[in-house]
Amino acid sequence: MRRKLTSLLIGLGITGTSLFAMTGSAQGHGYTDSPVTSRQKLCANRTVANCGSIVWEPQSVEGLKGFPAAGPADGTICAGGNSRFSELDDPRGGAWPATRVSGGSAQNFTWRFTARHSTTDFRYYITKDGYNPSQRLTRAALESQPFLVVPYRGQPPESLSHSGTLPRKTGKHLILAVWTIADTGNAFYACSDVQF
Questions:
Q1: Around Cβ 81, how many Cβ atoms within 10 Å?
Q2: ω before 68 within 30° of 0 (cis)?
Q3: Among 61, 63, 62, 68, residue whose Cα is nearest residue 42
Q4: Which of 4, 93, 94, 188 would suit a FRET pair with 50, their CA atoms being 20 to 30 Å apart?
């Protein structure tokens, strides 16, 4: 009996390992963590309910790189174009919790990495004045240029934190962070709601 049970457990372990390797699940890599909190983090720490599988994989919001000329389609940007995480694109009537920030002030953006990659850069975009937080994010809603670019020229990130000056804004806005990977066709996307 003991031998059969041991064989069964070994077989289950091999099957589980094979399944994990084939699905590529949990290969996530990073998301914005604090002090400006991303939607991924709000879901993972259960501040926001009804988030779907992002609760277990906040680091996995990966989509095609090349934003804004390429990358996820409008309306799917916060989920990186990944339908598994579509809850991140739902504006929830503009009710996502927002981090309080001050326009014109220095702001740190801290990332939580589960894997580091050769990196082209990190880019931080913000919505235009008149942004409607009850609508899905589109390119037209974002300022055309990032307010902060942190180049890495193919090197892995050495720092978990980037510092820049926030644009002068009022009201509720959304910051889109894009981490572009140098040696794959993908980037990681993180949306953070802020209140100026």
A1: 19
A2: yes
A3: 61
A4: 188
Domains of the chain (ranges plus CATH)?
27-195 (2.70.50.50)
Please count the other Cβ atoms lying within 10 Å of the Cβ belonging to residue 67. 21
pTM of the model: 0.84
pLDDT at 99 over 80: yes
pLDDT 10s digits, 49-90: 999 999 999 999 999 999 999 999 999 999 999 999 999 999
Q: Are 6 and 14 in contact (CB under 8 A)?
A: no
* pLDDT tens-digit map of 121-165: 999 999 999 999 999 999 999 999 999 999 999 998 877 899 999
